[in-house]
Each structure stands twice: as C-alpha cells, then as structure tokens.
Amino acid sequence: MARSLTGKVALVTGASSGIGWELAKQLATEGCKVGVIARRAEPLNELASQIATTGGQAFAVPTDVGQRDQVEGAFASVRARFGPIDLVIANAGVGRPTLRDPVNMGDVEDTFRINLMGVVYTVSAALPEMLARKSGHLVAVSSLAAYRGLPAESAYCASKAAVSVYMDGLRMHLRGTGVRVTTLCPGFIKTPMTATNKFHMPQLMEVDYAARKMIRAIKAGKKVYNFPWRLHMLIKLSRWLPDRAMNWVMGDYDAEAQQAVADRQK
Ligand SMILES: NC(=O)c1ccc[n+]([C@@H]2O[C@H](COP(=O)([O-])OP(=O)(O)OC[C@H]3O[C@@H](n4cnc5c(N)ncnc54)[C@H](OP(=O)(O)O)[C@@H]3O)[C@@H](O)[C@H]2O)c1
What we know:
CATH superfamily: NAD(P)-binding Rossmann-like Domain
Strand order of the largest sheet: 3-2-1-4-5-6-7
Number of strands: 7
Distance between the termini: 50 Å
Strand content: 5-15%
Bound molecules: NADP nicotinamide-adenine-dinucleotide phosphate
Number of helices: 9
Structural class: alpha/beta
C-alpha cells in the first residue's frame, strides 16, 4: 500500500538541477519539508524560494557529497531546522565519459567519489538516527547503466553498478530494523546531464514524468525500481550480445567522448 509523505522531513542531494530539483519540488507538493543539497548555492536558494512561493518548506545547504564531513554537517543543519529526517534521496551524480589513452583519471576519480562515495556518505549520515527511531527510508538514484558496461562509459556504469549492489546489501542488512531501502534505476531523462549527448537516447523521458514515477515507487516501498521497462528489458538482453554488436550500437562514441571531455575542459 502506498504511504503518504505528508508532514515528513526529506533530504534530497543533487537538488540544484535536473532530477533532484524536480524530486524536491514534487516532495514539497506532497507535503514534505525538504532539505536540498548540492554544491551550487544560487540554484539551491532559487529552488527553496520557488517552493516557498507555493506554500512549501525547503532549506538549502550547499554541500559537496564527496566530502564526508560536509555531508554530516548538512544533515545536522537540516535536522536543526526541520527535525528528524524520514526520507533521504541520494541522487547527486556526475556523468563523464571514460577515455582510453590517456585515461582521464581526474574524471574517473570524481565519478567514483561523487556517484559512489557520495551515496555511501549520504546514507551513512542518515542511518544512526533512523535505526534509533526504528523508521526511515533510504533511496539512491542508480541507473539502468548499472546493468551493462558501455564503451567510453566504463567508470559511470561501474559507479552505478556499485551503488546498486551497495544498496542491495544494505537493504538485506537492514531487514527487521524498520528502515526501508529503495534503489531507483532510470533510463534516459531530459536533464542538463543528457542535454549534450549526441547519440540517440531511446525512450527519453521528461524530468517531471520521471520524478513522478520515482515518487510513486518510493511511496509504494519498492526495493528496486527499473524504468522504463522496455529499455530495462533491452539492456538486460544486451548482456548476451557479442561486444562487436554493442560497439556497433554505440557508433562513434569514442570520438564523441573525447569531444565531450575537451569541451568541459575549455
Ligand atoms: N539524466 C539521466 O538520463 C539519468 C539517468 C539515470 C540516472 N541518472 C542519475 O540521476 C542523478 C541526477 O542526474 P541528473 O540527470 O539530474 O543530472 P544533473 O542535472 O547534472 O544534476 C546533477 C546534480 O548532482 C549535483 N552534484 C554533482 N556533483 C556533486 C557533488 N560533488 N556534491 C553535491 N552535489 C553534486 C549537481 O549539483 P552541483 O553541480 O550544484 O553540485 C546537480 O544538482 C545522477 O546520479 C545521475 O547519474 C540520470
């Protein structure tokens, strides 16, 4: 049965744009008080004031989720403002290609620090209080990319596979404690992260539609939510395809990846 979110305290990481921004807005509409976290203060404050103008409550705490002390500090600030945190959505992430020669090591290290350790720091900061209260809900935004390594996306796919497996273990470890765990694995969503992709993105979703589906899955207490289901099936089936077929599907992705990294370094 779907649980109501009215009156709950939620914390969303990566709320300064894209999915996190939309999740925070929709949670506020559902009646949550929302702590919003990301590195950039300006868009976070803009989000908080947009939520306030519609009668909701949001509190912005600029934070780098790859820095454990900052994450702990952000949780303390949101608790001081709104009280115990009921729902945490570890959504912050970066999508950077992985080059092969030379490997863009800084991007690879950032990818694991933000996408994986950012989730670990976020759920760890929430856990002691949730365990003490015997209630709470930990959610991570992984990806359908967790199910298949892709050329020039090695680090991103590996970081998301690690998030999904981490959350699987955590869910089982927390059985019987009253703390629930949900892993969200979306396909392609229109956000700043995908805006510069030149390749075809099958079943590309609007961000408000995707956030609605995510919130429905959270309210239903799903363990793992993969969507859209057709793309999920295709990606699972693609694990049986030979590498050369995947390379053909991905096209000239190596050149695109090099261009994307060069553009970001400008
Ligand atoms: N868009 C898709 O198709 C898609 C599909 C599957 C999964 N996902 C996942 O969904 C999540 C959100 O992605 P999005 O598409 O909404 O991308 P986005 O628009 O680029 O948003 C990424 C968010 O993460 C924040 N962030 C990045 N590094 C951070 C750090 N070190 N500390 C705190 N916040 C940080 C960014 O804020 P600041 O820059 O202000 O820090 C921003 O708010 C990511 O985990 C992504 O991997 C996206």
